Amino acid sequence: MLTVATPQTRIDQYLAELRAHLGSLPHEQATDIVEEIRSHIRDTAAVHGEMTEASIAAALNRLGPASALAASYVTDNLLARAQSHRMPWTILRGIFQWATLSVKGFLVFFVCTIGYSFGASFFLAALVKPFNPKVGLWLIDQNTYSLMLGMTDAAPRGHELLGWTLIPIGLSLGGGTIMLTTYFALGCIRRYRESRSMRKLGEAAP
Amino acid sequence: MAGRVIPPPPEPADKWEVQLRKGCLELAILAALWSERLYGLEIMRRLADGSGLIVPEGTVYPLLSRLKAEGLLSSEWVEADAGHPRKYYRLTAAGRRRVVEMARFWENFSASLDDLLAPVRKDTR
User: Fold this and answer.
1) Are residues A104 and A196 in the same domain?
2) For residues B62 and A72, is the Cβ–Cβ distance under 8 A?
3) Which of A74, B75, B105, B114 falls between 20 and 30 A from A17, CA-CA?
4) Comparing A103 with B8, which gets the higher pLDDT?
């Protein structure tokens, strides 16, 4: 069965797709964006005050795929927030969004998740040490040389390597790892955003 | 092995032009809004007419959204004669300060570059 899409439904379909892909933005902001694009389409698709199927197709074509337009808003919004707040949580959120768009984003997200997890573990171990002396870097099995950071029931068998020096070492290693991961993430974000806006402008170059 | 067509690398001059456009886009948008409020499509037309800066529609709207998020622009919905509302942008106080700074930098920069270019221009005229 063929369904005939009237001009108006083509616009509605485009905007519904746009709205669906803007999901992660605050409701009010997403609605505002959709209404602005609707207003833009009404302006650009009307030829002498009338919208035809061809004029609507051309107008939508100039805007590009709804998913790509939404991705520009969402990724730019989250990555810009990550760049200005510089907090691990906002950075991870932004990169997570980027990870849904490309393999490169996924790799960066992967590396950053590992980096932040390591950093947080070092920090946590150093912070908990004063309250629980069982926390430490344990050499559990000398033969296979297995190390464990944290609490272990193997205490009687293994032995703890760092003692109280775990606190300064944990704090500086933890802080260092988090800082390095943040620098890495912000560098990747900056390069990605630059290449993105440049590619788009390249397409428009006459 | 089947011959794979390797696209030629982009001309350095083209790439440079693209970078230059990109660098100027923010200034151009802010400057277009200096004396009056405009909606997205008007801004694009102003850029195309005034500076030949043709920008894809899919780039301008997210950029306007970012400039607003940065506090340089504010926006308001206005009922228009066209029969549908339009979202107008205007510069905030911070936006006006920013565009003044950018314009100053631009003038100094282009003047010193002009000095450097004078001999090139003289010999290739």
Assistant:
1) yes
2) yes
3) B75
4) A103
Q: Give the residue on B whose Cα is nearest the Cα of A39.
A: B86
Question: What is the pTM for the complete model shown?
Answer: 0.67
Q: With both helix axes pointing from N to C terminus, report the angle between A166-204 and A103-128 in degrees, rounded to the nearest 10.
A: 160
Domain assignment of residue A71, yes or no: no
Q: Do A205 and B58 touch (CB under 8 A)?
A: no
Domain that residue A164 falls in: 78-204
Q: Give the whole-angstrom CA distance, residue A64 versus residue B55.
A: 13
Is A89 in the same domain as A16?
Answer: no
Q: What is the ipTM of this complex?
A: 0.81
Are B87 and A72 an interchain contact pair (Cβ–Cβ within 8 Å)? Answer: no
The CATH code of the domain at B15-124 is 1.10.10.10
Mean pLDDT of chain A: 82
Are A87 and A166 found together in one domain?
Answer: yes
Shared-domain flag, residues A97 and A169: yes
User: How many domains, in total, are found in chain A?
Assistant: 2
Q: How far apart are CA B73 and CA B64, in angstroms?
A: 8
Q: Would you say B73 and B33 are in contact if contact means Cβ atoms under 8 Å apart?
A: yes
pLDDT, position B1: 43
Interface of chain B toward chain A, CB-CB under 8 angstroms: 10, 14-15, 17-19, 21-22, 25, 39-41, 52, 54-59, 61-63, 65-66, 69-70, 77, 82, 84-87
Same domain, A51 and A21: yes
Is the C-alpha dihedral spanning A88, A94, A95, A97 positive or negative?
positive
The two three-digit tokens of residue A169, written as one number = 């070492």
Q: Which two tokens stand for residue A23?
A: 């999901």
